[in-house]
Design goal:
mainly alpha
Length: about 220
Amino acid sequence: MIPLVEWFLGIFDLFFQVDVYLFEIVRSFGAWSYAIITSIVFVETGLVLAPFLPGDSLIFASGAFAGKGVFRLPLLFWLFTGAAVLGDTVNYLIGRWCRRWLAEDRHIRWINRQHLRDAQEFYAKHGSKMVVIARFVPVIRTFAPFVAGLGVMPYRVFLAYNVIGGVLWVGSFLWAGYAFGNIPFVSQRFSLVVAGVACISMIPLVMEYVAHKRQQR
């Protein structure tokens, strides 16, 4: 139990002290820092089992570091956007592979067939919108492309909204970090600001839930 608690505390610390970890990465690896932080964005979006990685806060902190001249902002934008789009694509393809596996009546213990049918119906109606919205919601953005692959969304449709969502997500958090991350009030309370960013990221999910409930009524 203690190692599990320590693991959760480590993840919690990673989320809210991401600027400290990013500083250590830059100090230790120099130019290779670009590859490391880009890989983190790819893994968070591309692997279903890695929703705990700090995508939003990492991009925001990287933008703040770019404001200090540590990183080149245009290069960060293209690297992060490419990683986000490629990650979602890999995640989608994993979901489609699982759908084919299930179509052959093979059993995947952690996939409920009724939930799969519900997901297919949902994505048939709202899939394109959710691919974009999910980008801004921690944890959900890791599972959304996988569920899209499980569903009935054609890849060309998914790819179009994948690119749109990736550009909006990376661009908004990167620019926010670049513009506001080095303001004394923000830099002195960076952990609180990151927590605020995480809360703001939940707003699209709450809005979508409220709209869904209204439609049900």
